[in-house]
């Protein structure tokens, strides 16, 4: 009963979070017949700013990390991002309605990382005295980018089913040239090789939450327009949202433990890798997938991720901490 009440409390907090609140607000005004229209050029500008901010922040963190210690955990994070999307393609997409792109986009969000869930885990671990390397939060783009690219490639292959398919390498190159991933990659590189800290702190960081709220408002209006498409398969997304974070988190914990055996990766780092795997993207994923897989239904992938997956991932954080206590005390 306590676990159920905790879940309801976490779900309630998600309803109040800016990400979900503006998404639901967009759906509400669309349902009421509002004529609010945000030009596509503004949407594209917001996406570029958001992706540059995420890339710059990650690049700055990577620049300050010990690369020799980072390599194996970064490889584990990349593998996790790809594997999670492939699992979703095999289990969710075939059952997710007439368009497999809906299921693939959902798997893409679950393969990418939630920055807010990661931040919550760090706070809990610091309160619990569980140590982790300072560079571990910088692992998230290593999971994020491969997951999103894998989802985009799979969606393009699904759309071209029965037709002449281009080489996968050509699809990957084309995906990386997309505006969202290009901005994310550029920000990552500049964060590593340049010194963008002043402009990051004075421009990108202050605008971040405000622009994100507008983005969610736009996607909420789109989600309402396509909500009817979900009626027959909503239960599939609910089941996936409830179970996927636990399965993915267990995979992340297992790979993190192997990195611990090989390199001495800290117990706290293992826990954070599990949390990243269990989480689903609430910032970088939605605009990237909306731009790259426009036929996918936002009501499907954002609904399963933010409404269900995020509360489950947040509630699973104590599970991974407790598991680390047991495993590393043996």
Explained architecture:
The protein is mainly α and 330 residues long. The chain has one domain (18-27, 37-327): Na+/H+ antiporter like fold, CATH 1.20.1530. The chain is built from 14 helices and no strands. The protein has helices at residues 2-16, 18-31, 40-63, 67-91, 100-111, 115-128, 140-159, 168-176, 179-193, 197-225, 234-263, 267-278, 285-292, 298-327. Helix 1 crosses helix 14 (298-327) and helix 5 (100-111) packs antiparallel against helix 7 (140-159). The longest helix is centred in the last third of the chain and has 30 residues, at 234-263. The chain is globular, with a radius of gyration of 19 Å.
Secondary structure layout:
Layout: H1 2-16, H2 18-31, H3 40-63, H4 67-91, H5 100-111, H6 115-128, H7 140-159, H8 168-176, H9 179-193, H10 197-225, H11 234-263, H12 267-278, H13 285-292, H14 298-327
Supply the key terms.
about 325 residues; mainly alpha; Na+/H+ antiporter like fold; about 0% strand
CATH topology: Na+/H+ antiporter like fold
Largest sheet report: none
Name the poorly predicted regions: none
Supply the helix-strand structural class.
Answer: mainly alpha
Average residue-wise pLDDT? 83
CATH class identity: Mainly Alpha
* Multimer state: single chain
Task: Based on Cα principal axes, name the global outline.
Answer: globular
Number of helices: 14
Strand content: under 5%
What gap, in angstroms, lies between the N and C termini?
Answer: 30 Å
Give the C-alpha Rg: 19 Å
CATH architecture: Up-down Bundle
